[in-house]
């Protein structure tokens, strides 16, 4: 706790008391809340760093796959059959794998325009399901930050209100400010800890949610272009099948 305060708070003047003194003035309930908030601060920082690295890695892998996509399978979506949705895939790879699987399952029955529409409906449904799963993947663990942003100040305030109540309740009729000050100072520790948790978490959450929305927009654009590409390839597949089918001639007698 003392180390956390030294790291996050400005240095004290030579005549000021050390941060550990304020912590020692807390009652047992206040100390428990302060320790809990210190643990929450560590969790918050670890969550923010981990999520930032995760989003950065996913975006890098998405862009890498998007650049490689035209070369897969000699320019055909059928080259994506090597991808499996159960593997550790980037979001773009996952969408392509789901779309490629639906495309291959339904393209064989496409013999006219209505069949193309039906096949693309299955493909777009698969893409939408994949997008929902990947959006959840983007937002995973952000609930921790939202909980800390909203809950940490109230938890700190609870410790302060309880500590002040105990400090005033233990005073006699002739109490002086010197008797009251240590209890109030100790009670304010929990509010300080709550703010030290909530403020960095707020900035981190705002940054992460902005990045998540940006990547979600990029995912939607990729899904749209993927569906367009699949429809073009399906029409080309149908055209080739039609051209390869021999025209049956009626014999003349």
Short descriptors:
mainly alpha, 7 helices, rod-shaped
Query: How many domains comprise the coordinates?
Result: 1
N-to-C series of helices and strands: HHHHHHH
Helix content: over 70%
Largest sheet: none
Layout of helices and strands:
Layout: H1 2-8, H2 19-24, H3 28-68, H4 91-106, H5 113-139, H6 142-169, H7 177-244
Helix pairs in contact: 3-6, 3-7, 4-5, 4-7, 5-7, 6-7
Condensed summary:
The protein is mostly helical and 253 residues long.
What does this protein look like?
The protein has 253 residues and is mainly alpha-helical. It has one domain. The chain has helices at residues 2-8, 19-24, 28-68, 91-106, 113-139, 142-169, 177-244. Helix 4 (91-106) runs parallel beside helix 7 (177-244). The longest helix is centred in the last third of the chain and has 68 residues, at 177-244. The termini are far apart. The model has no long low-confidence stretch (mean pLDDT 80).
């Amino acid at each position: 706790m003392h180390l956390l305060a030294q790291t996050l708070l400005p240095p004290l003047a030579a005549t000021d008391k050390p941060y550990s003194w304020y912590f020692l003035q807390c009652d047992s309930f206040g100390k428990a809340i302060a320790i809990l908030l210190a643990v929450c601060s560590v969790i918050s920082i670890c969550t923010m760093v981990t999520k930032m690295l995760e989003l950065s890695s996913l975006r890098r892998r998405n862009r890498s796959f998007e650049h490689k996509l035209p070369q897969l399978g000699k320019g055909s979506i059928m080259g994506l059959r090597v991808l499996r949705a159960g593997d550790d895939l980037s979001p773009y790879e996952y969408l392509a794998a789901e779309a490629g699987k639906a495309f291959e399952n339904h393209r064989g029955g496409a013999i006219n325009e209505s069949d193309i529409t039906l096949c693309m409906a299955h493909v777009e449904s698969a893409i939408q399901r994949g997008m929902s799963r990947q959006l959840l993947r983007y937002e995973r663990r952000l609930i921790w930050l939202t909980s800390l942003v909203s809950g940490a100040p109230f938890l700190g305030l609870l410790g302060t209100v309880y500590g002040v109540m105990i400090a005033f309740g233990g005073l006699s009729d002739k109490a002086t400010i010197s008797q009251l000050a240590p209890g109030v100072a100790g009670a304010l520790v929990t509010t300080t800890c709550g703010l030290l948790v909530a403020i960095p978490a707020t900035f981190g959450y705002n940054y992460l949610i902005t990045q998540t929305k940006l990547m979600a927009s990029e995912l939607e654009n990729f899904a749209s272009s993927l569906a367009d590409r699949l429809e073009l390839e399906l029409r080309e597949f149908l055209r080739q099948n039609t051209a390869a089918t021999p025209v049956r001639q009626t014999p003349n007698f």
